[in-house]
Design brief:
Strands 5-4-3-6-7 form a 5-stranded mixed beta sheet, with helices on one face. Strands 8-9-11-10 form a 4-stranded antiparallel beta sheet. The protein has a two-stranded antiparallel sheet with strand order 1-2. The chain has 6 helices and 11 strands. The chain has 2 domains: 133 residues, Glutaredoxin; 44 residues, Antioxidant, Horf6, Chain A, domain 2. By secondary structure, the protein is α+β, with helices and mostly antiparallel strands. Strand 6 and strand 7 form a beta hairpin. 30% of the residues lie in helices and 24% in strands. Helix 2 packs across helix 3. It is elongated and about 60 Å long. The structure holds benzoic acid.
Length: 212
Amino acid sequence: MSLRLGDEAPNFTAQTTEGEINFHDWIGEGWAILFSHPKDYTPVCTTELGAVAKLKPEFEKRNVKVIALSVDSVDDHKGWIGDINETQGCNVSYPIIADSERKVAELYNMIHPNALENLTIRSVYVIGPDKKIKLIITYPAATGRNFDEILRVVDSLQLTANYSVATPVNWRNGDDCIIVPAVKDEEIEVKFPKGHKIIKPYLRTTPQPNLN
Ligand code: BEZ
């Protein structure tokens, strides 16, 4: 059965460009993003892995580790990293899993044979410190993902994990948040001392609680 939000992220051991890892041990106490791409030495994938390399400091600020995956070998990954660094002006310094036996791809439902035979499509799994799956995104091979959007979602996930808020449509870091329905009106002033607006009884907003 395919994985769903809230499920535990399956653990595995795998060879990567940075040696063998046990996935849960590698995640440690923080957040993780596991993302697959179809194939090394292909154009869209080259731009994506470069973009992730450039965003790595932003992920680190948020205590998020990133790890890529395709069904190519460690040697292929290592050779291709040279091309990514050269063409994208970056330094790929996160591991890439070599899943030539497709073990992780099967575990995470990353092969969709009716869309792309025998190769991994563009899957993204965001995993929380509790090792539960917080977000699943699936893109086809020909469409590069927007990793700024994935960073935006991480901001939302971390905010909603720590405060009784949700984030509205097109929310960006710094925008007002929505007070979740479970918070009673009489609790709002204590829980949200920065202020709030009641637009409708079910639509109440507050300044983003984790900013000074
Ligand atoms: C690409 O990365 O450009 C790509 C890979 C597999 C299929 C289609 C495009």
